[in-house]
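Lab manual, section 2.4: Encoding a predicted structure.

Procedure: take the sequence of the chain (295 residues), apply the prediction step described in section 2.3, and record the output as structure tokens. A sample record is shown.
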Amino acid sequence: MAISCTQLETWSHQGSVPTSSNTYHSIRSVLCAPCVPYADKQYEVYLQGSYCNDTNIFSESDVDIVIQLNSTFSSNKHELTRAQLALHERDYDPATYSSADFRKDVISVLGNHYGINNVTDGKKSVKLAGVASRRNADIVVCTQYRKYAYYWGYNDCPFIEGMMINNQGECTINYPRLHAAALTQKHQQTSSRFKPLVRVLKNIKTRMVERGYINEKTAASYYIEGWLYNAPNELFAYDLRERFEQVCNWLLRQDSSKFAMPHGQFPLIGAQNNQWSSNDLEAFSEELIKFDRRY
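Recorded output:
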């Protein structure tokens, strides 16, 4: 039996927003307090992930927050020509405040305010345990990343801005703002039919995990968003059941190695730590087909 239209409609709805918004603003006020040890640096705090992209579902509890250091940045300067790299090195001195310093200071700020027992330094994010009035939060501590087209001086160096997480020797580059903007554009181009379908697939993934068909890391929300993003706009039909079938059937027939991330900076499928592995996509796809038949 296929998933009913009523169930698909239920799964398409957005989860709670007010508590998540309150969580973000509460944590932001702590991270941006005048007395923080990085107060004299250039930095910014912003949302990323499901609550930023309006693709959150009812079962989600974590709020993803980015605190990004801009006065220290990383770049693809190694890809510049020798002449351009020389100009870049002339213009910028080596950083005296590192990403490791920043991460240490952010953890200290969070620990002093919320209690160090509620703060865990994870592989990619700093995890803050929630309470009754505040959700759990994943706080991404990163530096600005600049993907230069070329470099001929301060005022002649167009670049695409992303962010880099550098923790325990492992670096991850991503483009959360470009990702969010691309999802919003896709949503508009499909007459507001894209994000409800993302929520449907995320709810299905949650049930798959609960029933032991896949594990939690097989299909991150970020990858599900990227997968659906690659479907042609004309497949996003008004009827939700038709939309679900058309989009998923089309995606399941394609060569996924040709799919791009919504931000357009690298492929969706790959072996890097910011890409969906082909094995995980295959596992998710196989269980998705089975799930719709037996639900």
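Check your result against the sample. The mean pLDDT is 94.
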